[in-house]
C-alpha cells in the first residue's frame, strides 16, 4: 500500500508541476490527508517571487495604480480604496483551489452571473478549472452579486477572492 501511495503521490506532484508550468501561477500549495497518521503537504514554486519582491515596491512608490489596473481592471478602482482586502469581506466568494476561472458554462454562452444579479445559496456562480476538471463554484449564501473581482479565463490561486455577494 505504501509503494502504491508513493507512486500516486509522485504522479500527483508531477501533475501539479505541469499545471504550474502551463499557467500564469508562481506557486501551488496542496495538503492531502489520507488518514489521521498519513498526510502529505506539497509546495511547488517557480522561484519567481524572489525576483518579484524587489520589483513590487518600486512601481508602488512611483505609480501605485499602474501595476494593478492591467491585471484586474474591474476590481482595481474599488478594491484599494477603503474596502481593504476583498477576501476579508463577509460576502466574499473565494477560490477553493488553484486553477482558471470561467464565467460561463461554455464559450459563447451567457455568464452564470453578472453584477446586480440575485442568487440563491448553492447556485453556480462560476467555474474553476483545475487539472482539466471543471469545478462548479456555488454561491455560499443567497444575495445580490455586488462585485466580480476576476476576469473570464484568469488564473486564480487558492483563497483568492472571486466575487462579493451581499
UniProtKB/TrEMBL annotation:
Name of the featured protein: Biotin carboxyl carrier protein of acetyl-CoA carboxylase
PANTHER family hit by this protein: OXALOACETATE DECARBOXYLASE ALPHA CHAIN
Domain Lipoyl-binding, chain residue ranges per copy: 90-166
Taxonomic lineage: Bacteria, Pseudomonadati, Pseudomonadota, Alphaproteobacteria, Rhodobacterales
GO MF terms held by the record: acetyl-CoA carboxylase activity
Single GO BP term: fatty acid biosynthetic process
Database matches in Pfam families: Biotin_lipoyl (PF00364)
CDD domains, per the entry: biotinyl_domain
Keywords tagged on the record: Biotin, Fatty acid biosynthesis, Fatty acid metabolism, Lipid biosynthesis, Lipid metabolism
Function: This protein is a component of the acetyl coenzyme A carboxylase complex; first, biotin carboxylase catalyzes the carboxylation of the carrier protein and then the transcarboxylase transfers the carboxyl group to form malonyl-CoA.
CC annotations in GO: acetyl-CoA carboxylase complex
Superkingdom of origin: Bacteria
Associated pathway: Lipid metabolism; fatty acid biosynthesis
Nucleotide-binding in keyword set: no
